[in-house]
Amino acid sequence: MTERRGEVYEALDLALRIGEVLLLSGAGAADVTAAMLAVTEACGVRHVSADVTFVDLSLRHQPASDVPAALQVRRVTWRPVDYAELIEVDETVNSLVAGDINRGEARDQVARIVSTGRHRHRWAVTVGWGAMGTGVALTLGGSLVVCLLAFLTACAIDGTQLLLPLHRIPTFYQHAAGGLVATLIAVTASVTELDVDPSRVVTAGIVMLLAGVGIMGATQDALTGFPVTASARLIDAVLNTAGIIAGVAAGLTVGDLLGVGLTTFTPGAAGLAEVGVTVFGAALAAGAFAFASYAPPRSLVAVALVAALGQGVLLAVDSSEVGRTWGSAVAAVTVGAVCYLVAGRFRVPPLVVVVPAIVPLLPGLDIYRGLALIADGKDGVLELASALATALALAAGVILGQYLARPLKREARRLETRLAGPRMVGPFRHRRTDGM
């Protein structure tokens, strides 16, 4: 009985470690719960209940009413997203559930994954953030000088995000510092003789900071029946966004004190050449974000292609009378559906593709316009409300797209099974052959 109890605790501990990696990577509470329960069942431990919050993961096992329950809780320590770690852990879970490895091997693999350092140099990650800023500037119609400034701004923001956590500065102030840095660089550029629209530089910085705000995870939790986790994530997202707004507002105030106004914004022309540049910029921004989040090279192609598709859909719908919010929603549905269908072909979870792919669609422009109008003494609340609506439309649209893609993928698998001939090697279907 003692040996059996020890095996139960080992299975629960393995599931909690896996759940922590998934939660840190932005997975929804429903996905984390399903993964942890799948792990415990694969280990032969059934009758397990799971509870996921923003800061804690807990598993409870009670096989019978007259048996004391086994309870384990793991505190979540938040750290930067590492998609390479997520993909390796996801592969371990799939191998465990399929019966290719046992509990001990899965435990050793997870321990190795989370203890091994990142496989990408930190300077390369900073360059990735800079490339993302350049991509966002291209989607806004920025010139070569604007793209260069956006690159430098993104690298500078990454420096603040790297330095401030060492001093345990809360994320609100980290985002505020990032917004301030972006705006001050734009203010500095505007007082020079460079022919540059500084508002594009600020917007690129805002989009970079918004990419780390977990509005999609909060929306998914709210839609899938996890209100407590959704509330915590939403509060965190609102505070971080408020930090960005505060930092940009402070920078605009500094600009006003120096007699430098950054309130104008003239989007680029919408000709065929400009559309091509915009789509390329979206692909570059999404791919660079995935690279900076340690995604493996094989996933970058999928991310870039899906982001380009989403940007193309946005441009097509935005040119009609439905408005940008609905255009963002349609683009997000497209991104969510396509990601769900193609992620398996690149051997990555859909999360690794969908989050970077919606980065170019984030409402950095609306936030900047609202703040610029407020700084100019006008009413910018409508622009800020539009930014919030766009963010929610993106999150809800992505999730809806995945729901719509499920039956399509299921039917595609059935058709593939019917058309497939006799297999010459390898199993036709995985079966579980061991366990407790």
Quick take:
By secondary structure, the chain is mainly alpha-helical. It is built from 16 helices and three strands.
Write a structural description.
By secondary structure, the chain is mostly helical. It folds into two domains: 2-115, no CATH class; 122-412, no CATH class. The protein has 16 helices and three strands. It has helices spanning 2-24, 29-42, 83-98, 103-115, 122-139, 144-163, 171-190, 198-210, 215-223, 227-257, 272-292, 297-318, 324-342, 350-357, 364-375, 381-419; strands at residues 48-52, 56-61, 70-75. Strands 1-2-3 form a three-stranded antiparallel sheet, covered by helices on one side. Helix 7 packs parallel to helix 10 (227-257) and helix 8 (198-210) runs antiparallel to helix 10 (227-257). The longest helix has 39 residues, at 381-419.
Overview features:
single chain; 3 strands; about 425 residues; 16 helices; mainly alpha; disordered C terminus; three-stranded antiparallel β-sheet; 2 domains
Total domain units: 2
What does the average pLDDT come to?
Answer: 82
Rg (C-alpha, Å):
23 Å
Widest sheet, order of strands? 1-2-3
* Percentage of residues in DSSP E strands: under 5%
Helix amount: 55-70%
